[in-house]
Amino acid sequence: MEAGEVRPRAHLAALVLARGGSKGIPLKNIKLLAGVPLVGWVLRAALDAGVFHSVWVSTDHDEIEKVAKQFGAQVHRRSPEVSQDSSTSLEAIREFLNHHQEVDIVGNIQATSPCLHPSDLIKVADLIQKEGFDSVFSVVRRHQFRWSEVKKGENKMTEPQNLNPAKRYRRQDWPGELYENGSFYFAKRHLIEKGYLQGGKMAYYEMRAEHSVDIDIDIDWPIAEQRVLSFGYFGKEPLKEVKLLVCSIDGCLTNGRIYVTEDQKEMVSYDYRDIVGINLLKKRGIEVRLISERDCSKTLPAMQLGCVAEVNATNKLQVLEDWQKCIGLGWKEVAYLGNEESDVECLKKAGMSGVPADACAVAQKAAGYICKSHGGCGAVREFAEHIFLLLEKVNSARKQMEDVNSAGQDTGGK
């Protein structure tokens, strides 16, 4: 390198290993967790961190590839040789590096750690790129006393490993111990090529306990779902309290089917659970409005929903914008439930967006939440519950901020 020439910055690539086979949960990596495919949570964090030159998913499965691309990641098709149950992460990473000579540093992020935040990845990138560490891995602090194992048939007593039973620590007096949590492993190429993910000049990065979630078996799923809703990363824009839900009638409130009687009258069916969901939203002060591309003005009164509705809507986005401006709301205060291509722009604009499980592919790609229920079969009620959970998150964040401000004022007054 000549004098005065700027050294090129090392290429840092995020790599998520997500093969199709899983002994515990079939296609675990794209199973919906709080309405988002599992791998989507870490991809969102990696992309929004802004520190990676490229973000990749290494997979052997077509459906996982499709989801990865929907979230904006590039895909490396891994070979059958490194896609076996016996294959190690290191083997898959080394194969990736063999095909991508431009990569200097790999940030191997585990898809099973859905509470990862961009702020964590930014700090780790600095440790590697600015402070010169060769490898950095994630840990979590635990306050657990360990005892030696006594196997069946052994004639001996258990022994304390990290405590004196005669003088047990109080939790607040003991700093605890650091354990790997498997969320991520960053390492430079030369180290990986030698067969190591940890080595050279090493550093750990301590994650907050509430962000340390690892999904191993199916029983962890509902627990992880609650943790994600409480502590997960939902995007760059802060969540706001939803004040308006706009729901597409055909395919969301109904199943999209139209029944025609002998005397040419149309009939549709809906799920009573969805009516309950609409009523619950209203009780929470959230206005619900309905929209449809077709003229369903004759069937709507029979549902007795008491909602403002726009039928024959040739431009749903224009209707949504008119409603938003008329009520005086910001986009973050609007939620939208749609299922068709005509809903895509509305889904992208709304602060909170969802689709039924049977929505078309482009609508699913644009939505922030994918219901487990189909249209006309409880999707509206499910999306309402999702809104309520996120409102709890908004209120919790607001209370935390008030507590911080209050503490600051108390300190300043002393």
Automatic annotation (TrEMBL):
It is an enzyme of class 2 (transferase). Its EC number is 2.7.7.43. Keywords: Nucleotidyltransferase, Transferase. It comes from the Eukaryota. Gene3D superfamilies: HAD superfamily/HAD-like, Spore Coat Polysaccharide Biosynthesis Protein SpsA, Chain A. CDD domains: CMP-NeuAc_Synthase. GO terms for molecular function: N-acylneuraminate cytidylyltransferase activity. It catalyses: an N-acylneuraminate + CTP = a CMP-N-acyl-beta-neuraminate + diphosphate. GO terms for biological process: CMP-N-acetylneuraminate biosynthetic process; N-acetylneuraminate metabolic process. PANTHER family: HAD SUPERFAMILY MEMBERS CMAS AND KDSC (PTHR21485), N-ACYLNEURAMINATE CYTIDYLYLTRANSFERASE (PTHR21485:SF3). Belongs to the CMP-NeuNAc synthase family. This is N-acylneuraminate cytidylyltransferase. The lineage of its organism: Eukaryota, Metazoa, Chordata, Craniata, Vertebrata.
